[in-house]
Structures are given as structure tokens and as C-alpha cells.
Amino acid sequence: MAVLPHLIVDEYGAFIGKHSERLVVTKDKERLAQVPLIHLEAVLITGNGVGISSDAVHACTERGIPIHFLTRNGTPYASLYSAGLTGTVATRRAQLLAYHNGLGLALVVKIASGKLTNQAAFLKYLAKYRKETDPPTHEALTHAIETITTHRRQLSRILERTPSPGDHLTRLRSDIMGEEGRAANAYWEAIAHILPASLGFPGRVRRGARDPLNSALNYGYAILYGEAERALLLAGLDPYAGFLHADRPGKPAMVLDFVEEFRTPVVDRTIIGLATKGVSFDQEEDGLLARETRLMIAEKILERLETPAPFRGKRHPLRAIIQIQARSIATFFRGERKDYTPYRMRW
Questions:
Q1: Spatial strand order in the sheet of 15-19
Q2: What is the bridge-based pairing of β-strands 308-311 and 314-317?
Q3: Count of domains forming the chain
Q4: Which residues, given as ranges, of the chain have pLDDT below 50?
Q5: Which of 17, 88, 167, 235 is the most core-located residue (most Cβ within 10 A)?
Q6: pLDDT tens-digit map of 320-342
Q7: Which residue range is the domain that position 207 belongs to?
Q8: Are 119 and 158 within one domain?
Q9: Where is Mn(2+) annotated to bind (predicted)?
Q10: Residue 339: inside a domain, yes or no?
């Protein structure tokens, strides 16, 4: 149940309490897991009927350890953070102004461009050893890379043809999402070529997915959302004041904007890698992922977040890169840097 530096709890009737400097998980007086608070990065409660004490909540929030709650199908429905994570007034004001002064538009175009760059890089990685062993698949991957690259260039031209820095995002949102969507179609069609036929991959399905691969991807993305939200809060940003994703009550639009450049390096690479190695994503009768599968996915995504990757001339865990990028957005909005550079994965 426990994987340092994370605690994942999904067993019905389990209770998370605090004992000395540890979190302890018990059920029917049996100790299921314990984790020293000093090593803990996050708590994930991913099942029904799990309890947690106020002492455990206080200990976590005091140390900056987030507590995330997810449904069985991976939908995040709550997170607990320290009340001190409210950010600076200057950062929040700058974020709100960015919607109208052109900085928000520049940011989402850069993030979308970074997402497409990472999709192409991942396909290059998948194509690397297939030229001789599987020429048809190599050709399909190469064609998709070219298509994605074309749409990335089109995204860059959106900024070039914008008549004024304050051009409203509402008018350009459909253009940005259109290029991003067409690239995504090419990306997932290419991914389908390397997946086992037994998965029955129907193409990318977001809400209400019932096939194993889409269910696994959605579950992985839900974990990534929590990490992105924490990074934005620590950087002083409002996770609900986004730019590309439309404002709706309860919708963390800024999280959904920010997370785009990390979907492929954190989740796609992990889940698709498992699928190509023959790992099965078992499901229950209702089509939701089985408990053991949810636990396995959570562990693998969290391991991936701890994996060092090249970034700005050094190697940092992906979790740290997410935090660095959130701070870069904050400084970009405040005018302390001239541009925002999205994270680009190496292939």
C-alpha cells in the first residue's frame, strides 16, 4: 500500500492516523502501512470508505504534504493543502491581467507547442528501433511526427499574426485548440500501431472511458493534475484562473492549461510503456479499473515523477521540473522574464 515517498490508500475501512512522526494506516486494528513524515511527498486516497484523523491532516499541511482524493475511475474531487499556500498578491494580480495583456495568449501557445514537441519526441523514441524490425509501423510513426510538426509550426504563427498584444483569447481559443486537436488525432492514431490488439484501443477517449488503456491513461492524468495543482499553488498562482480552458465553477482551468506539456513525458510514456511490455490493465465488472491495477498505475506514475530528466543543463526529477516551470510562469506574468520556455522531453 505504501511506496515512499508517497502513501497510497485505497482499501475500504482503512484509517490514516498519526503516531509520533509517522503516518500509520490501520484496518480492524491491523497495521497496513507506516511512512515517516520526513520522507513523505504526498498522500493519495483513491478508494471509498477511507478515514483520516485531524492530527494526520494537521501534520501533513504543516509540512506542505498535499492530500489528494480520487474516485475509483481516477477523477480528482478534492485536495487538502496548507492554508498558507495562497501566493503573493502581486502574482495573482499579474495572472488575472495576463488574460487581457497578451501574456496569457503567449503562455498557452508556448505550452501547446511544448505539448506537440513532446508528442513528436515520444513518437521518435517509439520509432527508433522499428525501421528494420517493423517498417510499416515505422512509416506510420514517421508520418505522424511530420503531421504534428506541421501543426506545431501553425501554432507558432498564431502569435506572429496576432494584430495586438492584447488580442483577446476568446477569439483565438478555437484556432489553438484546433491545431492541438488535429495533432492529437495524428498522435493517437500512431500510438494505436504499437499497441497490442488485445487492448482493443478505440482511439483516445476522455470522459467515461471503459476500455483498459484509456482508463489507465485517465487515471494517470488524474494523479498528474494533483502534482500540477500543488506546483501552481506553491508558485503563488491561482489554479482556477486559466486561459485556454474555459472558466467553469469547480474546474481548475489553469491546472488543465499547465499540465499539457507534461502529459506525454509523465503519463503517456509510463502507461504506453507498460502496455507494450504486455502489462494488463485489469477491470472489474462495471468497467472500472481493478483495485490492484489502480494501485500499480499510481505507483508507476509516482515513480516516474521521481525520475531525473535533463533540464536546463542539469538533471532534475520530473516533479522538480514541474515546480520550476510553475515558478517560471509566475515570473513571466510578473514581468521578471521575457518569455516562457516549455519543458521538452529528450527521446
A1: 30-36, 22-27, 15-19, 51-52
A2: antiparallel
A3: 2
A4: 1-3
A5: 235
A6: 999 999 999 999 999 999 999 99
A7: 89-334
A8: yes
A9: 180, 245, 260
A10: no
d(CA 166, CA 144): 34
**Is 146 annotated as ligand-binding?**
no
Q: How many CB atoms lie within 10 A of CB 72?
A: 17
> What single-letter DSSP state applies at residue 80?
E
11 labeled binding residue: no
Closest by CA position to 6, among listed 315, 317, 333: 317
Looking at the DSSP assignment, which residues form a beta bridge with residue 289?
283
The tens digit of pLDDT for each residue in 68-112 reads 999 887 788 888 887 666 557 889 999 999 998 989 999 999 999
Three-class DSSP category at 30: strand
Asked whether the whole model's pTM tops 0.85, one would answer yes
The answer to whether 260 is annotated as binding is yes
DSSP code for 255: H
Out of 80, 113, 139, pick the residue that ends a domain. Answer: 80
